[in-house]
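Supplementary notes for students who missed Thursday's class. We covered one full example, reproduced here. Read the sequence, then the structure, then the short commentary at the end.
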Amino acid sequence: MDHSDQAQQNNLVREQFTRTAQVFGDFAVASRGRDAELLASMVRAGAQDLALDVACGPGTLALRFARHVKRVYGLDLTPTILDRAHDSAAAERLANLTFVLGDAQALPFADESLDIAVTSYSLHHMADPARVIAEMARVVHHGGRVGVADIIVSEDPQSADINNRIERLRDASHTRTLTRGEFESIFAKNGLRILGAQIEEQFRVFDHWLMVSGWKPGDRPYEETRNLLESTLSDDLAGFHPRTVSAAPGSAPELHITNTVLFIGGEKV
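Structure (token representation):
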């Protein structure tokens, strides 16, 4: 992806997370605490560590890591959601958090200056996710750790294609979801010895999944996403494991899905 394409993608990300800063921020901070703790354990976060939360959003990881490390830096591209993270840190009286406006593909940190670099649910928004992981590996010292939590897709190209089509209908800032094999390959290419990897299936209600992206029933992105997802009810081609569940009498059935999430941590050798 060339410079102009990267700039366009950055603009899409800023637009999406400026528009949804409140609703997405509320969801991520409230519901992903366990994810943050799992990743903190996987990268062996310790009391003397300097850590970086890349594409920190509302502070999904940073707010939790602050309880485990000496200092954590939260970096994000979107000023509005970074302000929200700052407000949350202030409300929780966390004094060891510093927030930085910047691009994950060109981290403003010196080589080998940190102990830990982590990111969550961000790489499928990146123009060049491999470059982001390379940057994370660059800024940690030898023996430092890199951790990622993100959605993954099937190794089957047809399944991955329709999964990504659904994701892009839901959120125009979505680029491409990686496979587990791609994550493992990128880690290896950047000298990261895998410390642990874990896959989890995370339940989502479709309407809420669309709400945190800023859409409600009747909005075109909502309807187009639902229609394409429902076309996979019989064969689960996209890998979302969609199913309909009876709701209150007189109400339309709820659509439920599952996101497949990979937690992976590596040590720089």
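Commentary. Residues 137 and 190 are 6 Å apart (CA to CA). The chain has one domain: 3-154+173-202+259-268. If anything here is unclear, bring it to office hours.
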